[in-house]
Design goal:
Nucleotide Exchange Factor Grpe, Chain A, domain 2, 3 helices, elongated, alpha+beta, 6 strands, three-stranded mixed sheet, Hemagglutinin Ectodomain, Chain B, three-stranded antiparallel sheet
């Protein structure tokens, strides 16, 4: 191709490019066709079904969330209760040691150092029980309470009041508000 031919074709190519770049004519928007009565009924039925399904799933979710919350609270309460029960059970196992120390203190002995040593051990044991939240159940002279006392004997004596505890055979203890050992007592009248 000669230079003249190139000049002749160049404007045609430029013209072609310009033609390609022209914006397209706007497309006509389709008018939405009117739905028939049957189509509207179907659309409403689908909408109702979807709403019902969403409502059911929301209800399931709320129930599951409430159930989980209840489970969490229940397990927390059981965990706290279990700790207290185990601690009370362990403390109950130490009470026979307390009883034996108490019996040792009641025995007559000529050795003052021995008596003083047992007394010091008993004081330390009482202090430890107190720190752990164990308290003695008052019984002597109190009115009999079946929630705190275990009556093993009964006497008739007019010098005492009705259902009065007159003798304690074995001390009772409670951990916080829970009785871990009932006081074994003799009750009058």
């Amino acid at each position: 191709m000669s230079t003249e031919e190139k000049k002749d074709t160049a404007p045609a190519e430029e013209l072609g490019e310009e033609l390609d770049e022209q914006p397209e004519a706007p497309k006509k928007e389709k008018k939405p066709k009117k739905e028939s009565k049957k189509e509207l009924e179907i659309r409403e039925a689908v909408k109702d079904a979807v709403e019902k399904a969403v409502s059911e799933e929301k209800d399931k979710y709320l129930r599951l969330a409430a159930e989980y919350d209840n489970f969490r609270r229940r397990t927390q309460k059981e965990k706290e209760s279990l700790y207290g029960d185990i601690k009370a059970d362990v403390l109950t196992k130490f009470l026979p040691v307390y009883d034996n120390l108490e019996r040792a203190l009641k025995q007559e002995t000529a050795d003052e150092a021995y008596f003083k040593g047992v007394e010091m051990i008993m004081n330390q044991f009482n202090a430890t029980l107190e720190k752990l939240g164990v308290t003695e159940i008052e019984a002597l002279g109190e009115k009999f309470d079946p929630e705190k006392h275990n009556a093993v004997m009964h006497i008739e004596d007019e010098s005492f009041g009705e259902n009065e505890v007159v003798e304690v055979f074995q001390k009772g203890f409670k951990y916080n508000d829970k009785v871990i050992r009932f006081a074994m007592v003799k009750v009058a009248n």
